[in-house]
Amino acid sequence: VSEDNTIDDVIGLMVEKNVSGVPVLDKKGSLLGIITKNYLIDLLANELKGYVGDYIIRSGYKISVGTSLATLSNEILKNVDMREFVVVQDNRLLGVVGEKELAYFLFNYLSDDNIINMKNALHNYVVNDILTFINEPLKPSSPVQYAAKLFSNTNLVIYPVAKDDTLIGVIRRRELFNQISR
Q: Over the stretch 38-59, which tens digit does the pLDDT of each residue have?
């Protein structure tokens, strides 16, 4: 985008192209910087209406502790819509894991010249080896602006939602961003 584009133009482009950031160029075509979804969510958080409970996804978001990274990889590849998962043990929230954590693990593993052992590693390592721990889930009654601040301050794209210590679903950054784009 150019520095003269409106925020609405940028949001529309991000939604259309399904990207999380776009470069910003000056009139001469030189790179000025980048605008990201997290930045826009943080900037426009007060534009969001409602509560976390209005955005909950209630199925397809859980993966069990001890699941191999090979299985996680297969779940990410086969599930077009859900690429991050909440890690649970006996339905108790432990954290979040997804394609970013898996990519980070693979990058570090490959940088150690272990490519020959990669297949074994994907079967021997489990999701709890790479998850991002979550100490406190969101509540359905939390203002959606609070969730937006969490997304803009973390590298997460989903966040668990619980009621009375029972995990009931997740909220995704994408739905909040799409709400802003309307």
A: 888 888 888 888 899 988 888 8
